[in-house]
């Protein structure tokens, strides 16, 4: 068993085999610090993405709830055509890969 004596950078107390200081609860483990930093970066990234999405919506999101019925119908029709074109493209890609294999 490996015993680790870690000195707390904040208060200077030595701690044995712990990730947090027993006195001031400062994070001592580098692994724990990296995990916490990674989680904070993930939260910040998701927050940036959500802000970007609300500030810059796509064409379909922007006009899907338009006040004019004609615009909503046109957007739904355009979206349906786009889905069909993508489905045909995926089928052609699948067909080419199965023939090539």
UniProtKB/TrEMBL annotation:
Lineage top rank: taxon: Bacteria
This protein's UniProt keywords: Membrane, Transmembrane, Transmembrane helix
Annotated transmembrane regions: 77-96
Entry keyword Membrane: yes
Protein known as: Zinc ribbon domain-containing protein
């Amino acid at each position: 068993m490996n015993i680790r004596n870690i000195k707390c950078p904040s208060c200077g107390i030595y701690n044995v085999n712990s990730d947090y200081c027993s006195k001031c609860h400062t994070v001592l483990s580098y692994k724990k610090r990296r995990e916490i930093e990674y989680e904070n970066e993930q939260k910040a990234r998701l927050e940036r993405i959500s802000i970007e999405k609300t500030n810059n919506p796509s064409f379909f999101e922007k006009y899907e709830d338009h006040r004019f019925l004609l615009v909503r119908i046109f957007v739904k029709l355009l979206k349906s055509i786009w889905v069909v074109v993508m489905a045909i493209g995926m089928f052609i890609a699948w067909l080419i890969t199965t023939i090539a294999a």
